[in-house]
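User: Hello, beginner here. Can you help me understand these amino acid letters and fold codes? It all follows right here:
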Amino acid sequence: MRVDMRATRETGGAVKLGVEAKREEDFRGYRILKCDGGDHECAVVYESFGYENDSIAKSTTIYDTLALNTNTKNAYYTATALDYHFNESEKSEPIKVTRPDTVPPVSPLFKDYLSSKEAIELIIIPSTSKDLSNMTLYRNTDGGRFENYAILDKNDSNYIDKNVEVGKRYGYMLVALDLDGNSSKTKYAQYAQVVPDFTLPEVVFKVSLLEESKQVEITWEYDEDIKEDLTFMLFRKSTTQGWKMIKSVKKRSAYRVLDKIAEVEAGYMYKIKVITPSGKESIENKEQGLKGE
């Protein structure tokens, strides 16, 4: 009489075993054995015979519980069938059942972050656990409640958050999840802010020579929507002298500077830079001027 067996691991350490044998007239019941490996001695964990109720003795569904606090990863089940003379069949093929993992995965870490005017990039050290499923990123805004924000791959080493605003402070936490549903313990939160845009528009200006007065006229207009105080710095250089600031102009409705020059042949060149008290400054503009012959 040969026994066939199947096993299904259920919630926690519960195992559902299904056994079936080609029953003979004197079939009495099943004996279930369990061991921790092929080279381990198996122990009897269940015998279905000995019950007054014959339907229980011959039941094909049996339940067992796995020990979780052990160093062995797998358990192996085999079964035999017995007759009324206690003659025992050959053992079934061993069925391997993997114990559920109850150990939380190693926590992922934030290594650093990079901030720009458009996004925050989180630099991540992923969890080193081998049975990792994924990572969950949580985020809060300005000290609010942390909420589930994104699901990351288990090997992701960075995450770029583009849904950010200047002036707000964002907190991030990472939780690793393994294949058995265990979650890592949160170590700490990483906080970051979007870097404000410190770049002002380029100053577009015009240079004209007033020959009679031997002066150079520099004129420009600028965006009046900028609410901060503006300071325009006018620089000049020639073939005999490097760049030098010659004039500082405050914010106004119209901009005009006259520069007295010695001679046109000196090859005067000009450029303008604008700054604010908060540290903003304009991008480098194209220099213009009077080129000597």
